[in-house]
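Q: What would this complex look like in 3D?
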Amino acid sequence: MNGSENGVERTLPKNVGILAMDIYFPLICVNQEELETFDGVSKGKYTIGLGQTNMAFPTDREDVCSMSLTVVRSLMEKYNVSYQNIGRIEVGSESLIDKSKSVKTVIMQLFTDKGNTDIEGVDSLNACYGGTAALFNAVNWIESSSWDGRLAIVVAADIALYERGPARATGGCGAIAMLIGPDATIALEGIKGTYMEDVYDFYKPAFLPKEYPIVDGHYSIKCYMKALDHSYKAYRTRFERKMGHPFTANQADFAIFHTPFTKIVSKAYARLYFNDYLGNPSEFPNVPSSYKDLPLEETFVNAEIEKTFLNETKTKYAQRVQPSTFLSKELGNLYCGSLYSCLLSLISDQSVVKDLVGKRVLLYSYGSGLAATTFSVVIRAPVHNISEKADIHSRISKRVQLPPQEFTQILDGRELLCKDPSYTLSGSLKNVGNSTYYVEEINEKLRRRYAFKQ
Amino acid sequence: MNGSENGVERTLPKNVGILAMDIYFPLICVNQEELETFDGVSKGKYTIGLGQTNMAFPTDREDVCSMSLTVVRSLMEKYNVSYQNIGRIEVGSESLIDKSKSVKTVIMQLFTDKGNTDIEGVDSLNACYGGTAALFNAVNWIESSSWDGRLAIVVAADIALYERGPARATGGCGAIAMLIGPDATIALEGIKGTYMEDVYDFYKPAFLPKEYPIVDGHYSIKCYMKALDHSYKAYRTRFERKMGHPFTANQADFAIFHTPFTKIVSKAYARLYFNDYLGNPSEFPNVPSSYKDLPLEETFVNAEIEKTFLNETKTKYAQRVQPSTFLSKELGNLYCGSLYSCLLSLISDQSVVKDLVGKRVLLYSYGSGLAATTFSVVIRAPVHNISEKADIHSRISKRVQLPPQEFTQILDGRELLCKDPSYTLSGSLKNVGNSTYYVEEINEKLRRRYAFKQ
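A: Here is my prediction, written as structure tokens for the whole assembly.
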């Protein structure tokens, strides 16, 4: 009997959050500097302008389901988790291969074989926010009366590809899996500020036979910043209500952000301080007091304000944010996995890893359309075990760089796959890494079968 | 401060569940008897074979977002809920008009205008199970440490349409909205048995320019029954663990089922008793003991067993299940909303409504692909207020029956809408009811704008 039945008090599971995490990314990537040359754009447009180094992408042999199978299996095996001990799996993705059947059901392949079919959770959908929704749902489940004592897995997996043109360099690909439970190494603080609104900054009409989004890049950046303002404000209100004192960005030992491209992150971090300035201008003696009188609408694309706060936060950015950008630079935009790849980069960074226990990380999750939440986690125990098992620096260095020409051909193949139901898979298995699931067949009824490359 | 922070005990919100509910269905429908004649099939094939009376369907002026806007606004207004008092909205649907942007974000239109943008929740996706996933997520949120005291809304909305052929008569259309909070009229018992598996019984490949599923009807019924067996078994195990005594179907005062077509429900109810029989054959003196020795696989399509248990449960079915089938017969398959339309039918039935307080309802939610849960609710207070506000019998009787010819033409129009990005909306507004949102425009960028017909 529990509290919901007889009214007695119940001790909530404490410090629910991330016990373990892993990432999958494809074996292949394209170099952004080479892509600049290939695309005939000005030197530095992708590498400095966007802040990107390489971009991960898959052949037609990978999809959201194969990637999810790979990363979940890897997590289970690396941490030697019992397949019976998982009671919930939830997926965040916007790279659906089906508008009805969830990715979650495909992941069940791994568990049915082990005799565990009683696993809650399906897919959460809203652009790059799905992984965060899935994380919150998993944490809430563990804190609810229907929790049965088992752990949850959250998967955030996407393939971000864009039409030929200026947006193409902002693609990326990868899948994160997180093991969720009580007494976690990285615990959610239970403070969240959310902002949602009905906008069309980036979307994928359901009946277009393509996997590319329709995107208004400049408008989307404005939406990202506006939602950051609002969700950060809501976070601060709730923080003060819970903790009894105000919150400013200085109280975040680290800050990580959804990262469509790395360059935006320094601006987002600076924007937190612009918000703090609006709340208390006297704390910012170097900032003109006139900024606070501008209509908020005018501040989103104001180069002077941007520069002022980039300068204000330059040192802090290097210490508190930059360590989280490693995977974003190397993989590109992971959509749902982006924010969590930043967390994994942070806890894998040699300059900070020794001194993380007790630290607060502020997180900003953004999904176009739009859904955004600012929330925070506390690192409660050493994270070496997680970073060693994920081993991201070594794995990133072992990837195969394909020339832009081949990258383009592979994307052309994926375009055909979306348009032509009779398309035959042509991607070479040499471009699929070991210990990786891949699409073995798409049959005449468009059912996909997956195989595991040992 | 709460339990997750400092370890003190916390009283869980009690009896979390459904405080209020409403349904939206289109003004127009087609009569199944007329459809039999039009399709040239044997008389009774749809009306007796499937158990259907009418089928709701929309013109091209309605989509999952317009229906969700309508039903949420209706719920808010009928119950005079403050727009500030909603902290979570979550949608279950498989009728996506976008593969990235959630239906939830469109519903935000109603709340942004009222100054409430801090609302959690996105869309839950897995065929007809999405509404149940959304309900569980909302309940868990209220029981979690991050609950802020506000209420949640769960929307289950779908448009079920099939290609010309034998499956077409199993379509339907409607949207359910439920207000979720503590001390509920209809409270979840916190006992669930779940079964998930990777199958292709019904699915919608993401890149096909159509809203029809690919479906293997016979296989899907087998999957439905298999998942019923497994989830019911898991439910009974958990019930006994929590309550200290075994569960049999007789302990459910009422039972309601996801209803692809009404005829399947009597078979599903009979199947619960077949499961009870397998657990304890001596309780079924009229049933041959040999049935228990058959491989389970052979029992799913065994006409003799089916008939035996249909006979065993005939009287109970009439009392405990049939009152829940009214809306399914009149609307068809509502996909995510189906199970909850059964709940609304049940509490709107004059023969049972006087005597519902204290009664347990067993619920079976099934979504192809597959995801299934058997769970239970208890009705804790009189439901007249909900049924009077929903007013389903009167509203159903006021619909407009269109001839099968016009039904077919309207569906042909929707087919074009999916195939042709330059399609112009042609549905007459006379086929849209009052107090209803409709699609006013789909622009050249495929962005949809909604208007409200007073």
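A: To summarize the key features: DSSP finds 16 helices and 16 strands in chain B. Chain B touches chain A through 95 residues (CB under 8 Å).
Q: Very helpful, thank you.
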